[in-house]
Amino acid sequence: MTKAITLLTCFLMISTITIVKAQNFQGQATYETKRAVSDIQFQGGGMTPAMQDQFREKLKKSMEKTFILTFDKTTSLYEQPQVLSAPVSGLTTVVASNATGDEKQYKNIKDQKVMIEKDFFGKEFLIVDSLPHWDWKLTNETKQIGGYTVYKATALIVVTEKEKAAYGKRQLEQSNKGTQMMQEPEPQDKLVTVWYTPDIPVSQGPEEYWGLPGLILEVNDGNNMILCSKIVLNPKEKTTIKMPKKGKVVSKKEYTEIIEKQMEKMKDGKGNIRIEMNK
Predict the structure, then answer these.
(1) DSSP assignment of 146-188
(2) I want to staple 187 with a disulfide (CB 3.0 to 4.6 A). Which of 78, 159, 229, 258 is the partner?
(3) Do 206 and 69 form a contact (C-beta atoms < 8 A)?
(4) CB neighbour list of residue 177: distance below 8 Å, 6 or more residues apart
(5) Which Pfam families match (predicted)?
(6) Which tens digit of pLDDT belongs to each residue from 109-149?
(7) So what's the pLDDT on residue 156?
(8) 182, 52 in Cβ contact below 8 A?
(9) For residue 198, what are the CA distances in angstroms to 71, 75, 230, 251?
(10) CA distance linking residue 108 with residue 42, whole number of Å
């Protein structure tokens, strides 16, 4: 019985790899995103415990989104399906748009290029840059996700001196201006854990994750989690993987600087960003 199951597993794996190697191969993977909000801390007397819990719950719901990754052997497009959702006001909108974002992400492995179409408060940007480098550490640890055998890999994102200096500067400004409503955590090195399947041998994944010998099905960086819930290989109706074109063309560095300047404009006299809560 065990031998029969092993042979069946090998047959399915070989069949999947054969499909991927087909000339006109295409696949679609559906991902669900979540974010831990228990780490968000408040200080000062601006919000009651009930208001803080309400804010965390709204933020948590705003982070629960569905994305579809359409991919072939060298390119991919990661975007949300076209659905209507209720707007979320105040800081929740700001955090949500920067954390997961109503955006499109295009990756070209062959050209080592990433293009991200973002909308920030009604202004469209097209971020064009090189693919990020991931120093993956491969392991032999495995588990099952949706019938696929996945392998664990990790990468460490080290906090830069520039990020530490910027954090120190913000803290100094806050102490001079007054009490900060939301406590900003000190930047820490972040361990990213992903699970990928060699059964689908394409070097793709959700968001900007890539660079492994198989499709990435799960991502966890300690705060944010992305989990694949469905995979369709060679769907009957193929989708054209198009490069995003809308928005002002900027680099990642330029976009970050634009966002930082805009956030400064939104602050009140004490350096806090005003939070609006829907009743």
Answers:
(1) TTEEEEEEEEEEPPPHHHHHHHHHHHHHHHHH---SEEPPPP-
(2) 159
(3) yes
(4) 269, 270, 271
(5) Porph_ging (PF09697)
(6) 999 999 999 998 889 999 999 999 999 999 999 999 999 99
(7) 97
(8) no
(9) 15, 17, 16, 32
(10) 41
